[in-house]
């Protein structure tokens, strides 16, 4: 199989490259800058630097199309929010190539946290009480309802831009800097005590074929996970399948969910319709077979499996030594690095290039670095240049709350 993995800057994209490449598949990678870690793997047959899907959609689609045609790519595996641009413009890609993603309409329902909240309720998946705010006044009223609250934009990701009055991120964002609108609403929920639990799934024709549930013993600045521990998947697998059952029966792609463990059960928080680091905890052969549906039962990551991004753990250890030193030292001594066993260590040495790239696209603003790192590949709910009339109508329906 000839595969193109897009947004190769992500550690989990590099992991997908390695898993498929090690099994003999011809793997290519792309990103909007040459220093992306996944574009320097020894398992690659080739790589491409593209225009930004967000800021230059036409050029991005044309460049991907030309590369697919030149190299006979059979499957495109998106690993970040370029998935929306590829799904919206899939009809323009060469015949014979598949994008490993659901329809744009389903992806939009999942990504918009307001519509996802309704989808989860319809699927019978437990979710905290949620108030949708479409104006600054509604946001202030909503936060006043809860003594302890947690709020974020409907189109957000990576633990960036969280508004809360509780926990380590309390006060990090001012409510006066949050401007909800009908097209860009915010969600407000009561602050739920308990650890975060995450899941990652591959889905083929409406069936979850691989699944991993994991926690993050280490996080960078209380948001992005840098160490991962697989835990029991019984509940999250059932919830993931319930949600998939509410989508198009042919849905094929990757979904990741975030939950809070309240001590009395899980409550779902959000969906990322793309891979996350959970893929790292799956074994290569099982993942590859599940990706194309060649499994009779769901491949599940074994509880107790651990991985860490050692370079990030080291950085976090020195950034917040008092709070993280004990945990960081344990992880450095006992947890297997994401590079271990791949004989591909040069790829991760390109990690600093991501910081440089983020600084460049920041354009001198004070945007959080985590946000800046993905700013050229995100989708925030706006119409996509060249999208079909049907997809435009689906997007309008999501904003209007009719789906």
Automatic annotation (TrEMBL):
Electron transport as UniProt keyword: no
Signal peptide: none
GO molecular function, a single term: ATP binding
Segments forming domain ATP-grasp: 117-300
UniProt-listed PROSITE patterns: ATP_GRASP
Keyword set, alphabetical order: ATP-binding, Nucleotide-binding
Keyword ATP-binding: yes
Name the UniProt record assigns to this protein: ATP-grasp domain-containing protein
């Amino acid at each position: 199989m000839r595969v193109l993995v897009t947004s190769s800057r992500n550690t989990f994209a590099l992991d997908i490259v390695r898993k498929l490449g090690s099994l003999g598949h011809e793997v290519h990678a792309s990103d909007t800058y040459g220093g992306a870690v996944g574009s320097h793997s020894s398992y690659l047959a080739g790589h491409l630097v593209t225009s930004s899907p967000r800021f230059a959609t036409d050029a991005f689609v044309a460049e991907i199309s030309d590369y697919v045609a030149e190299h006979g790519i059979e499957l495109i595996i998106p690993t970040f929010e370029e998935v929306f641009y590829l799904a919206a413009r899939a009809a323009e890609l060469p015949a014979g190539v598949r994008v490993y993603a659901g329809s744009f309409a389903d992806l939009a329902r999942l990504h918009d946290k307001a519509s996802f909240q309704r989808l989860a309720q319809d699927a019978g998946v437990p979710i905290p009480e949620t108030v949708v705010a479409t104006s600054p006044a509604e946001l202030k009223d909503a936060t006043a309802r809860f003594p302890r609250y947690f709020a974020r934009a409907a189109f957000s990701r990576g633990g960036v831009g969280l508004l809360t009055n509780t926990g380590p991120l309390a006060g990090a964002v001012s409510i006066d800097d949050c401007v909800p609108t009908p097209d860009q609403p915010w969600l407000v929920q009561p602050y739920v005590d308990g650890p975060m639990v995450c899941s990652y799934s591959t889905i083929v024709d409406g069936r979850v074929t691989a699944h991993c549930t994991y926690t993050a013993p280490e996080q960078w600045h209380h948001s992005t996970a840098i160490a991962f521990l697989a835990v029991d998947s019984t509940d999250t697998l059932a919830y993931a399948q319930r949600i998939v059952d509410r989508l198009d029966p042919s849905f094929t792609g990757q979904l990741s969910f975030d939950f809070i463990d309240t001590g009395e059960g899980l409550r779902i928080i959000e969906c990322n319709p793309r891979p996350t680091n959970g893929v790292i905890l799956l074994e290569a052969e099982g993942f590859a077979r599940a990706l194309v549906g060649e499994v009779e039962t769901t491949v599940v990551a074994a509880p107790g499996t651990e991985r860490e991004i050692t370079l990030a753990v080291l950085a976090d250890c020195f950034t917040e030594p008092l709070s993280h030193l004990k945990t960081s030292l344990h992880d450095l001594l006992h947890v297997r690095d994401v590079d271990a066993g791949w004989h591909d260590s040069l790829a991760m040495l390109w990690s600093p290039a991501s910081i440089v790239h983020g600084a460049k696209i920041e354009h001198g603003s004070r945007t959080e670095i985590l946000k800046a790192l993905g700013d050229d590949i995100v989708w925030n709910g706006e119409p996509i240049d060249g999208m079909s009339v049907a997809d435009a109508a689906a997007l309008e329906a999501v904003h209007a709350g009719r789906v």
